Amino acid sequence: MFNDIGILELATLVVLAVLIFGPDKLPKVIQDVAGFIRKVRSFSETAKQDIRNELGPEFKDFEFEDLNPKTYLRKQLSKEGGELSEFKELRDTFDLRKEMNEVADAVNGRDTVPEPSSVPAVNGSKPDLVKRNDAPEAGGRPSFDPDAT
Hints:
With 149 residues, this protein is mostly helical. The protein is 54% helix and 0% strand. It is built from 4 helices and no strands. It has helices at 7-55, 69-78, 85-93, 96-108. It is elongated, with a radius of gyration of 33 Å.
């Protein structure tokens, strides 16, 4: 709960508590706060137990932390063989590194020849997908490419 409070902040809180409540009332205030925290924890545990009892035996291993989507996904993906089949299929069919390299090659103007298996045949012949004209026209400007706009 107080993982991010350092020694300086804690000392400041103690000094402020002594100044506000005084040294004679401070022990009573600490006891009251500790009792209140114990009552809240007890109430919380009782409520959790009541909810588990109402859900029935099929939810006996239900954890309230699983209601957080990040925790639920982390738990499901970390189980042995628990990787969801849809994610695995998607990961297997999509090669992000290959796609990024192709885009980088196209942007940098490098010729990339597609693999023969990935080029569809049209009328028995393969289309020329890598048609480039790197040399600018006589006017010094490259030709207009309607597919690029």
